[in-house]
Amino acid sequence: MASSIASKLFLGAPTTNGSTSRIGSPASDIRKLPSSTLQLPVRPRSKKLQIQAAGNTFGTYFRVTTSGESHGGDVGCTIDGCPPRLPLSESDLQTDLDRRRPGQSRITTPRKETDTCQITSGIYEGLTTGTPIKVTVPNTDQRGHDYKEMSIAYRPSHADATYDMKYGIRAVQGGGRSSARETIGRVAAGAVAKKILKQYAGTEVIAYVSQVHNVELPEGVVDHETLTLEEIESNIVRCPDPEYAEKMIAAIDVIRVRGDSIGGVVTCIVRNAPPGLGSPVFDKLEAELAKAVMSLPATKGFEFGSGFKGTFLTGSEHNDEFYVDELGRIRTRTNRSGGIQGGISNGEIINMRVAFKPTATIGRKQNTVTREKKEIELIARGRHDPCVVPRAVPMVEAMVALVLVDQLMAHHAQCNLFPVNPDLQEPVKVPRHSPAEIQS
Amino acid sequence: MASSIASKLFLGAPTTNGSTSRIGSPASDIRKLPSSTLQLPVRPRSKKLQIQAAGNTFGTYFRVTTSGESHGGDVGCTIDGCPPRLPLSESDLQTDLDRRRPGQSRITTPRKETDTCQITSGIYEGLTTGTPIKVTVPNTDQRGHDYKEMSIAYRPSHADATYDMKYGIRAVQGGGRSSARETIGRVAAGAVAKKILKQYAGTEVIAYVSQVHNVELPEGVVDHETLTLEEIESNIVRCPDPEYAEKMIAAIDVIRVRGDSIGGVVTCIVRNAPPGLGSPVFDKLEAELAKAVMSLPATKGFEFGSGFKGTFLTGSEHNDEFYVDELGRIRTRTNRSGGIQGGISNGEIINMRVAFKPTATIGRKQNTVTREKKEIELIARGRHDPCVVPRAVPMVEAMVALVLVDQLMAHHAQCNLFPVNPDLQEPVKVPRHSPAEIQS
Amino acid sequence: MASSIASKLFLGAPTTNGSTSRIGSPASDIRKLPSSTLQLPVRPRSKKLQIQAAGNTFGTYFRVTTSGESHGGDVGCTIDGCPPRLPLSESDLQTDLDRRRPGQSRITTPRKETDTCQITSGIYEGLTTGTPIKVTVPNTDQRGHDYKEMSIAYRPSHADATYDMKYGIRAVQGGGRSSARETIGRVAAGAVAKKILKQYAGTEVIAYVSQVHNVELPEGVVDHETLTLEEIESNIVRCPDPEYAEKMIAAIDVIRVRGDSIGGVVTCIVRNAPPGLGSPVFDKLEAELAKAVMSLPATKGFEFGSGFKGTFLTGSEHNDEFYVDELGRIRTRTNRSGGIQGGISNGEIINMRVAFKPTATIGRKQNTVTREKKEIELIARGRHDPCVVPRAVPMVEAMVALVLVDQLMAHHAQCNLFPVNPDLQEPVKVPRHSPAEIQS
Amino acid sequence: MASSIASKLFLGAPTTNGSTSRIGSPASDIRKLPSSTLQLPVRPRSKKLQIQAAGNTFGTYFRVTTSGESHGGDVGCTIDGCPPRLPLSESDLQTDLDRRRPGQSRITTPRKETDTCQITSGIYEGLTTGTPIKVTVPNTDQRGHDYKEMSIAYRPSHADATYDMKYGIRAVQGGGRSSARETIGRVAAGAVAKKILKQYAGTEVIAYVSQVHNVELPEGVVDHETLTLEEIESNIVRCPDPEYAEKMIAAIDVIRVRGDSIGGVVTCIVRNAPPGLGSPVFDKLEAELAKAVMSLPATKGFEFGSGFKGTFLTGSEHNDEFYVDELGRIRTRTNRSGGIQGGISNGEIINMRVAFKPTATIGRKQNTVTREKKEIELIARGRHDPCVVPRAVPMVEAMVALVLVDQLMAHHAQCNLFPVNPDLQEPVKVPRHSPAEIQS
């Protein structure tokens, strides 16, 4: 079939009724072509076909290398550059790992993993030693499915095809999916980063679900000054407003039973971020945050402060006027800057929104091609997340925390080597915002 | 005045009528307080108060370090790692520098600079030598304004305050603004990157203005398969549709005479990007692109492919089905992936949208504070861009091109060291899309 | 006891009779102070006192992160950026791991480890996939010694004291020694690097022992054009000359029974290195090599080409004159440049020498202090290498190979992106030197 | 002429009489072959043949990018990451630039340059601002010689041939030599680094000439506890001992009139280095120092502490015993460790020796080949350093200081983010060694 320019949509789906895609619509894609239809299991059946996860490094001062893969023995990370003498134990990490793990509720993938972590180096008698911290999480639920069909057909919107294009080897069947498990290392490292931030200046990194498919949490419903982790964790979809949480869960339930998937938006705030984090020019704080969260699987967009909506304002409407607060600190009355001006944090609440597409793996028939370039239909069977957003909450927090600790250390190295200038620079450890009770 | 939580808006201005901000609305901020009102010139008057621009480095293989500042003698960049024997001259760079320079039309800042560049090393007899390329652009229009007030009061939503918070020294009056001139080095380096991409695989990086304030170019008006640089450059606002271009220019003219400013959106596409660029995990192609463009001044958001709108689709609507095209290549019928799957380019058109806020410097009275923490009103006088978006077009192209060349070299080093696998990997230099006539 | 400036010797022991050190001489340090004498076991007895090994990253394009520690469950490395489709299996790595492992002969530490490696990701059906390669070597001989005294007293010339000075925590008892086991990850990664070099251009990295204590192999005894791995591996000390090998082994035997230790020199050559590797200015090839080998434990010096002896020549004696060889290639008649000119390889044999000090852990009484700053005497008991040099041979090869692959990839990315200039650049894969039969 | 293995000397000239090289000996290389003899001027005559200097970046946290070239308008550097509010002016840099500049005495090259530097950004009212510091030194003595022959024939032991092999373009005539001028940027940045070190902890970096050709300063003549800059600068060869200085100067004078060149050794010490600098594994302090100094032009070897001589000691002779000094600090009686144990500074004096080969450019006839692979004789005419070692002194100091500041910032970021442990870690700013009067 020839390429049709008209069928190429840019910046996606116009309306929310979802019927724009000529080919991908439910009516059209369930054609009966039994001879070329593959029943595609979601998880591998054989250890012979191994899935390779990637293990790169994030950060300059506080460096995290994740490793392991869905079908190997374990996953985890190595954290290099952690400050010494920080009280740390597995339980500090487990809280966030539990928020990330599969099978935590009916709206997540039923893969069963406890994701219990083990710290095998870098800790001595409950304190970090300054040498690398190695965190390991064993894989326990590897069903050993047969992956034969998967090794032939490219799953639409997965990493299958691009891995082959890049590496020229037919081995990486599940790049995209294995990444889901790869984020364990990020979440574990992020928990360490969050602890450092909390201890250093009462800084809190808190994310929640603000949109699931068509259910959008209106602005103003959540008060970022007082938002607590408890409010977010009070329901399985991680939306701090109980009413909207119900609607979101209902939306996921509908799509789940249809074998389809939906996406959404995670909002993340940073409370009591020290002023001065970030660098001019290429390493602006918003640039680092954008890279960090856009490296999570399934992300499609990032905005902070006024975001895309800010483009509809004039400068006089958009600018954040300064004032001096009751404690004599320079503050802004509004926060369209999202806590960042000129690439550097200004002490106000940092906020951002991250768009997640619907999970690519669905239990519905789709047209695709084999690696031998034969057109074919396939149905992925088995377990997948109907909506990745609730589990993405701790992932976003982790990436944001990793950026902040890295920038904090960069700032400390350069700007706190010699005594600060108290006229212009703020002493740390004075929280600007009322700290909520988070991971005490 | 005490901090008011209610006045803190998150993710900005809800509707497009612009009247949401209680404090920042035009009616309320022109209070008469003559004794504490500053007349703030936009540009400095004295060489004694120097502005320091930052000069960091971008890229790993193809490394660009920008340097210089608005008020020093010159600005420019050093490009490290450029392939040798590439035909290159100043005119290759000047085209894009002319698209970026101030004073190019009535809708840009009237600062007069020809921005004529000079290559002082790294070129011999019209060919790159492989050693660093140094590009210099002299500053010619430095008015020497008096910047005394500026050194006292923080301009709202500028980098003034955060530079002081970070560095503890009252010298960096115009961080944010000086960044505008800093982008010269980026645009020059980006022109080199674009030339490499064009020569290597016919890859084209093309950006245009798709929104100015409330004027939005509807989807589908621009055909990304055939879009040309000429269409974009046919008008001063750089929107390829003449009708919408007129509306955008009119919108800027209105705001310009009022001394206010507006923002907008730049759309950027990459045609004939080689498949296989980008890396799994932290260095995904979309993550690198997000960081690159979010490091430009005044950016507030980034999305690619289906973007934020994609969150309103189901998986079955969103997935891009594969097919085999008439040349035997694996393609996708739709492109909600935006040319990137699993963090790696798939050969389809890469597309993205970047949000720019309205310019912070405006010719209207605003409330602010001095560095001595005294509340004050100020009016910035002088020259500024009423809408930065038309000049941002070559900046976005430059950052995107820098990412692509860096990733191309990373890919070449790892995956082309040994012969490719022709069954799965595509030989380069076969453009997938009809190449438009760009920078021949 | 007061500090005595006079006792501080710089650049060590002048003559080879070893009697220069007033305090450290055997006669003076065996004073009888039983009440404060510690019996220091060389290896830990308790799992409660854990030793933390560091796990940093080496390389820019071919990146190796080592991890694990002597007393944890395993050691190993993660290799990021390896070219895909390289034939690779555990046996490729095991050869070098066996050359490095303890207990391989009577002149190495009697710790018993088979050091059997396992590749748990990055390989599929005998080929590398392009994603990270994870190599694990389990620790099997952990005796669980009591390390209580060690946690109190600083062992002279170990990392004990400096780890405490840096990290401020009393946990890292055996930094220096644990590093010995840390090199497993280096050697494993180096074996992969050597395979790439061999396959790419017939490049061979070969090291051997050229000095043990006072036994020095004279220049000219070994012919670097024809030297083979077999010659080196024909004896337990890894000196290719049988006669000198015997003398070296005898020297080690003498010192071994006395519980003392000796050092020596490892010479390393690179045959058929592609011309053009290395970069001008900071990343010169010799600078990268120097850093690489000087990061190995116990190294004290590095020289290449004419080395320190070259300082005794005049320019006219030292310069390597060019000529054209029988195959029409530009060569040098002599090789005082050591295969590197202007920081870039010239195709001649790269050669270097690395000095290793005598092992710090000895079975003799030494004066030291406790962490509570009490002066004390201690005797380390147990197992140690009387001379680390024979086992250092594969370590040096590994570090040199890692540098070369990293530089090869950097060079390939920059200079081979476009077709080479055949007039000046040499096509790869034409070995200049007769290749020996190494790791076929 | 066929390749002769026998003529390949490894690790250079055996004895100090200098007559080992069959081909390169003075007697044999002045053969009369007028038809193919080139008169090679040392400096270029035409601006058309430009020399490209490289401009890479050194350091991770304190980053220096040097730029410019011998024949462009200027040379210099950009320093990124400098702590803010450091008092700094051009005169701080000029002292070291004057020690490096050509024409400073009869034993250096007669090229006349004042090397007057200008800081064009990063300083405001005498204080660093935290943003990049740009240092520029104009070139004034460019004679514009004709470089035509040079563009044809490869100068022996220069970078001429390897640049062509790497880049495949015949433009880089004088890589090696242009590097000499490139070091201006290093020395300028090093002066900033030295000022930071001095201010932070009274740390001093001091180098001197300890060998010129056969004239070796015996150990013990210089007391490193009390050595001053004044002693070193009291003579033109920079040897603190007047008697040996005279001998060295005489040796240079002899070789200078013969148009030949000689090499030597620079010794460098660091006094009052804070304990704790450096990292375990790959980034050991000695590894970073080795890379830094081995990136200087003409270096052939590096050793620290006991160095190569330490290989002749036994462990019981070599180990540095600990004691507690009168101020209650843990010290070592001897310093064969060279101030570094386990890759981390221990507070003792860091010491190292760097070998420099004789300058490659000599005024004597040499055999070489043209770029067209024709064998030829050439004589370089004009100006060169008969012995580069006196001018290398500030270069070595600069590279060592850059490493230390980079490591200091890394250490401060990681280990001083939270309060130190006073039991094990030393508060900074307590000099261990009597500070000499250096660059007050």
TrEMBL record, chains A, B, C, D:
PROSITE patterns: CHORISMATE_SYNTHASE_1, CHORISMATE_SYNTHASE_2, CHORISMATE_SYNTHASE_3. GO terms for molecular function: chorismate synthase activity; FMN binding. Its cofactor is FMNH2. Residues 11-32, 87-114 are annotated as: Disordered. Pfam families: Chorismate_synt. Keywords: Amino-acid biosynthesis, Aromatic amino acid biosynthesis, Lyase. Reduced FMN (FMNH(2)). GO terms for cellular component: cytosol. PANTHER family: CHORISMATE SYNTHASE. This is Chorismate synthase. It comes from Rubroshorea leprosula.
